[in-house]
């Protein structure tokens, strides 16, 4: 054995020693490239975090395997009038500590999720009044009709008011927090699993909730989650049988896993769109050699960046065919008129000309923020973009970080500290309005949650006016035309650079039956494991 092989074996052994212990066949060991930083369900609006916490927390609604909205903590709901939604809560539900679930917890959670420290504010508009009718009935009173009010509530997890107050966790833990709160290290949900222990960066152990109000489809009694950042170590752990599920499988290892005797790769299109954004707000960029002005405020610069990126090369070389280049900021499955849009062609010569016209004939220098453990080949995608922009004279200083550090820096609580960045987004409502409001809406109104995830501050008031019309329009054909009109405005503005929808790639033991959803929120209470 070479020195390098020996060191790798020692590294793998040391990682697995932390997580592998004798367990029954009903224990599922799961490894992800990223970590579960906080157990506070309002700290980070990110799908992997939602999936983890979805085992212990629940919303008023849920989504089934086909992404259809179904009852959860609310048994039923109706709209007695266009601006009033009434939810009838499930009786007999208890939080993990034994506290009963009531309307008080819903009202409390509505206030908490809209708190300034929450990264989930767009789940419920600030002008929606939440009124307790009785212990098991809650009204949501709106200023205007909203036919999709509850479409993003499956990951708005309801918290125990009494528990939060007793443990000084009334306010959410901001993603940028440097010290943990009680809620970031402990949970008290109503879901099918209880967190027995949580060691951030090391291991989180979930145990089946013996007092769960619902019915478990799967047979798991325990889930052991371990973050394993190294692709090689993660794949080796799956192929050796030391873990049962890994996410993601590196693209270069898919064929090796599929050809193994004990594991396979679950592959499917994903609804997440990977895109690139610019700081279009500041008069001077934070991280650039250009002083006294912001190049990204010039539409010609944004257009130049777009036309310099070779999306087909990213698809074939970086993603190895496992991506679908996109012309829009939403997956085509989620917008009926997406076929009416075509992505502009690669044009590096035209890009250079645009930069010269904008006053940057020699290009300029700027830092790019990128996660390196969040999306499939995220750092490699950013590195490819660095090379492509170098061809038009732009020097990109790539800052690729683990998602915990990345999100703490670039999100609202971090002060949107970015000049140029890559991000991925799956619309929680499975609808364009979510993208238009959360990602593309103006964020300059402190009384509104619009644009909460708009890291670069793109703002077009005409676009926002159409977004508001989309929210209340009930005629599908008229609504689609409005959405199309809005996307046309953003494209004319060269507001963002949509890249692609990536493919899901889960490595799964052949002993495990694991349903896969297109939003990447896999819930292990559906899973079964054989001897």
How is this structure best described in words?
This protein is α+β, with helices and mostly antiparallel strands and 531 residues long. The chain folds into two domains: 27-262 and 510-529, D-Maltodextrin-Binding Protein, domain 2, CATH 3.40.190; 270-503, Dipeptide-binding Protein, Domain 3 (Dipeptide-binding Protein, domain 3, Roll), CATH 3.10.105. Helix content is 27%, strand content 22%. The chain has helices at 3-19, 47-53, 103-113, 161-166, 182-185, 231-239, 254-258, 299-308, 311-318, 348-357, 378-390, 403-410, 432-439, 461-472, 476-492; strands spanning 27-32, 61-63, 69-71, 74-81, 84-89, 129-134, 137-141, 193-199, 203-208, 222-227, 245-247, 263-278, 323-325, 365-371, 395-401, 420-425, 497-509, 512-513, 528-529. Strands 1, 8, 9, 10, 11, 12, 13, 16 and 17 form a nine-stranded mixed beta sheet that branches. Strand 6 and strand 7 form a beta hairpin. Residues 1-25 form the signal peptide. Residues 68-445 form the Solute-binding protein family domain. Belongs to the bacterial solute-binding protein 5 family. InterPro entries: Peptide/Ni-bd, SBP_5, SBP_5_dom.
Features:
disordered N terminus, 531 residues, four-stranded antiparallel beta sheet, Dipeptide-binding Protein, domain 3, nine-stranded mixed beta sheet, 27% helix, alpha+beta, D-Maltodextrin-Binding Protein, domain 2, 2 domains, globular
List the helices and strands and how they pair.
Layout: H1 3-19, E1 27-32, H2 47-53, E2 61-63, E3 69-71, E4 74-81, E5 84-89, H3 103-113, E6 129-134, E7 137-141, H4 161-166, H5 182-185, E8 193-199, E9 203-208, E10 222-227, H6 231-239, E11 245-247, H7 254-258, E12 263-278, H8 299-308, H9 311-318, E13 323-325, H10 348-357, E14 365-371, H11 378-390, E15 395-401, H12 403-410, E16 420-425, H13 432-439, H14 461-472, H15 476-492, E17 497-509, E18 512-513, E19 528-529
Parallel strand pairs: 1-10, 1-11, 14-15
Antiparallel strand pairs: 2-3, 4-5, 5-7, 6-7, 8-9, 9-10, 11-17, 12-16, 12-17, 13-17, 18-19
Domain Solute-binding protein family: 68-445
Family: Belongs to the bacterial solute-binding protein 5 family.
GO cellular component, one term: ATP-binding cassette (ABC) transporter complex
């Amino acid at each position: 054995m070479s020195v390098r092989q020996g060191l790798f074996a020692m590294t793998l052994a040391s990682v697995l020693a932390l997580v592998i212990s004798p367990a029954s066949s009903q224990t599922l060991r799961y490894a992800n490239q990223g970590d579960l930083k906080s157990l506070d369900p309002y700290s980070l609006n990110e799908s992997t975090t939602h999936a983890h916490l979805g085992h212990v927390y629940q919303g008023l609604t849920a989504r089934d395997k086909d992404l259809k909205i179904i009852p959860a903590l609310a048994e039923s709901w109706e709209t007695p009038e266009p601006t009033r939604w009434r939810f009838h809560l499930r009786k007999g539900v208890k939080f993990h500590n034994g506290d009963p679930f009531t309307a008080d917890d819903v009202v409390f959670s509505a206030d908490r999720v809209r708190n300034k420290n929450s990264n989930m504010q767009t789940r419920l508009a600030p002008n929606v009044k939440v009124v307790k009718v009785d212990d098991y009935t809650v009204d949501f009173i709106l200023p205007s009709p909203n036919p999709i009010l509850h479409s993003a509530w499956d990951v708005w997890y309801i918290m125990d008011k009494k528990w939060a107050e007793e443990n000084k966790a009334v306010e959410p833990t901001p993603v940028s927090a440097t010290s943990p709160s009680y809620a970031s290290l402990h949970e008290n949900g109503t879901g099918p699993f209880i967190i027995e222990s949580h060691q951030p960066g090391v291991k989180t152990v979930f145990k089946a909730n013996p007092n769960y109000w619902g019915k478990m489809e799967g047979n798991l009694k325990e889930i052991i989650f371990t973050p394993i950042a190294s692709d090689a170590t993660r794949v080796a752990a799956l192929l050796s049988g030391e873990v049962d599920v890994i996410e993601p499988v590196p693209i270069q290892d898919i064929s090796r896993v599929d050809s193994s005797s004990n594991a396979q790769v679950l592959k499917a299109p994903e609804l997440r769109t990977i895109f690139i954004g610019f700081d279009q707000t500041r008069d001077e960029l934070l991280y650039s050699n250009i002083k006294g002005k912001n190049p990204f405020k010039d539409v010609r610069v944004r257009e130049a960046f777009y036309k310099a990126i070779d999306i087909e090369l990213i698809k074939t070389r970086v993603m190895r065919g496992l991506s679908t280049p996109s012309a829009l900021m939403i997956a085509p499955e989620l917008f009926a008129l997406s076929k009416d849009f075509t992505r502009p062609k690669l044009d590096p010569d035209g890009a250079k000309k645009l930069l010269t016209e904008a006053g940057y004939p020699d290009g300029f220098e700027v830092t790019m923020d990128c996660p390196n453990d969040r999306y499939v080949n995220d750092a490699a995608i950013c590195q490819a973009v660095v090379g492509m922009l170098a061809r038009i004279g732009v020097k990109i200083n790539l800052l690729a970080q683990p998602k915990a550090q990345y999100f703490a820096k670039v999100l609202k609580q971090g002060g949107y500290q970015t000049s140029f960045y890559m991000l991925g987004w799956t619309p929680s409502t499975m609808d364009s309005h979510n993208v238009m409001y959360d990602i593309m809406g103006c964020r300059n109104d402190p009384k509104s949650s619009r644009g909460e995830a708009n890291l670069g501050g793109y703002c077009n008031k005409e676009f926002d006016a159409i977004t508001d019309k989309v929210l209340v329009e009930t005629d599908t054909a008229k609504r689609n035309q409005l959405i199309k009109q809005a996307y046309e405005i953003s494209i004319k503005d060269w507001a963002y650079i949509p890249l692609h929808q990536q493919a899901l790639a889960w490595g799964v033991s052949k002993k495990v039956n694991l349903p896969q959803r297109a939003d990447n929120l896999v819930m292990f209470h559906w899973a079964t494991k054989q001897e």
